[in-house]
Design goal:
heterodimer, A: Rossmann fold, Rna Polymerase Sigma Factor, Chain: A, 2 domains, eight-stranded mixed sheet, 11 helices, 14 strands, globular, B: alpha/beta, Rossmann fold
Chain lengths: 368, 195
Amino acid sequence: MSNKSLGVIKPETFSYKEEFLLESGKSLKRFDLIYETYGQLSEDGNNAILICHALSGNHHAAGFSKDDDKKPGWWNELIGPDKAFDTNKFFIVSLNNLGGCHGSTGPSSIDPETNNKFGKDFPLVTVKDWINSQNILREHLQIERWHSVAGGSLGGMQALQWAIDYPEKIKKAIVIAAAPKLSAQNIAFNEVARQAIVTDPNFEKGTHHPKRGLGLARMLGHITYLSEEVMKEKFDRDLKKDKIEYGYGIEFEVESYLRYQADNFSDKFDAHTYLLMTKALDYFDPSKYFEGDLVSTFKNTNSKFLVVSFSSDWRFSPKRSKEIVNSLIAAKKSVSYVNIDSYQGHDGFLFPDDRYVETIKTFLSSDV
Amino acid sequence: MFNIIKEWIPEGSHVLDLGCGDGTVLANLKKELNVNGIGVDFEEKNIQLSLAKGLNVIEQDIDLGLENFENKSFDVVLMSESFQTLKKPEIALNEIIRIGNESIVSIPNFANLRCRIQLFITGKMPISSALPHDWHSTPNLHLCSLKDFEELCSKSDITIIEKKLIKSSGETTFLTRSFPNLFAEIAVYKIYKKS
């Protein structure tokens, strides 16, 4: 396993100054996308990989933002010299999606028409809209065709959508811990998260940050990212103090951890972005343009696919990945599938398991 | 053996290799016949080796079923020397037939003379180049003779279009042709079923 780091990375911002039509029929007058790049674009321009982030992710996938940064980017374990996405070989682009809250145009940006924050008036964007905006970024970066597009969870769904919408612009798609669309259970979890936010009195007033609601949403989300096994390993039934107190304070370690996660997250994240991202997840269903048939959805794809699932993931279980795989097989497409034995749950995609890393490395370097 | 398989597979066909191992056969078919293929295997190491050859490989346990492959969705389904390792070979055989327009199955012949002699003289499970494992560490669960396999095919209304009977070196001799169940070490069958 490589421990080399990319060091301090400075993000860049691309401004698109034309009107951008959204899947919903609404449009944005203009938009900014903040992104980072790692590694060097080769002379023939054939080594560019796009990394797509998940629900609460951002452009800062690897390296450090500043010298004294304690935590590196969210996929630092997988992106870097000699890592799964090897920056000695590949030029990697990672952006914050439209609707995000880390520098790309989103609900927390200023609406040029009102000079106020967009807030709840920011139009809902979909995975398809993201791919269209990422394609504009691709043109700006003068990348003719992505060597690969990769992502986990909602990021994996973007890799799928890329292969469907721009078949000639993506050579390989790495679809990790994803699903072809959300199940009712998935949507239900998202709806509880949204209700936690929108029923927060601060949100209703529209003036203050709904810290409590956003924190609750994060707590719920976080539980679905972990397996029962990993929670047992991390916390089991351990108590904060040596005995139970028959009260409603924080008693179990797991409670303390969740509250810490909630506080930490809700200080940094925008509630409207969270709402919007969960909606983008719920709406994701590329087959809806193909009468619900996933096999026909993949008919025009031209990429080589790698689908990866994690054995203990129950949010988007291996079964969901196999739906993608089986439809690709039925559509006679190039597809490989690997189910990584893991106890980390959905979050497994963030950690550098040996087999997982080797699989990605091998897939990226093999011929098409 | 590869040469036999190669002759039976049309150029550019869509091939499913069940139990593809390290992907050698599929990679050669891809190189020589430009087949577009998918391998299926369950061993991590095999999957990794197949990926490294640039192949499409699906992690899947054949014993847990092949329902995910549609009827007649491949020109050829290949099962090279893994039939005898399956828990439910009869079910798998019918699945192979269902998925492929044609299927190629190869098996080691347990009724080969050498096996018979070893068992008879030493009273121990035979070991040969076609069956190289000790009884306690063999992946083979359902060893059979050619007669046994052919009986299973006929019971399932499966037609044997062609068969090649060879020694494990790959050669065919007068004896393997004349007394296959006694002298052939490996049998390769091309089979199909009228729908």
